[in-house]
Design a protein that fits this description.
Immunoglobulin-like, binds copper (II) ion, globular, 11-stranded mixed β-sheet, 13 strands, 1 helix, 4% helix, mainly beta, two-stranded antiparallel sheet
Length: 170
């Protein structure tokens, strides 16, 4: 039932997820209070700060999902070159582009840069971590482990909350 409910829900990915009824057919306007909305606690490791991480809940049997979040660095720079998680077959770093009026996404070769002046912002409709070939349901209110690899050789493992998100661009 969770999948069906989520397919009709609108939810802002602001870290503190909130959900309201979409009013689509078969739904009847109730707020969903029973699900625990876990949020990502900002954390710092080795001069890097990770904030607002979330993973979009799976929509029905959709094969893919995406993860978002912000990474800032106190000094110097680094590049997010790869990510992995046990819940997806493949993980890619993606960007959205406007192609003749159509929004498309594609893999970013060479990774996503982070500098002390320019934090890395991954959000719906922009840069994101693409999870391809989901192995499980990705239910809102749960968490997945996401491991991030950087050009500096650093690897950071995060527990990332699964939230339902309104914009379906994948
Ligand atoms: Cu993508």
């Amino acid at each position: 039932m969770k999948y069906l409910v989520m397919a009709g829900m609108i939810c802002m990915a602001t870290g503190t997820a909130f959900a309201m009824s979409h009013g689509g057919k078969g739904h009847h306007g109730h707020m969903q209070h029973q699900q625990v909305q876990s949020t990502f606690a900002t954390q710092s490791q080795d001069g890097m700060t990770f904030a607002n991480f979330s993973v979009r809940a799976r929509i029905g049997m959709a094969p893919n999902s995406a993860a978002y979040g912000q990474i800032s660095i106190a000094d110097g720079n680094d590049t997010l070159i790869a990510a992995r998680t046990s819940v997806a077959e493949t993980v890619e770093l993606h960007e959205h582009i406007h192609d003749k009026g159509v929004m498309r996404m594609r893999e970013v070769k060479g990774g996503l840069p982070i500098t002390s002046e320019q934090p890395l912002e991954m959000r719906p409709g922009g840069l994101h971590i693409m999870l391809l070939g989901l192995k499980g349901p990705l239910v809102s209110g749960t968490e997945i482990e996401l491991s991030l690899e950087f050009a500096s050789g650093k690897t950071v493992a995060l527990m990332v909350p699964v939230v339902s998100i309104t914009k379906m661009h994948h």
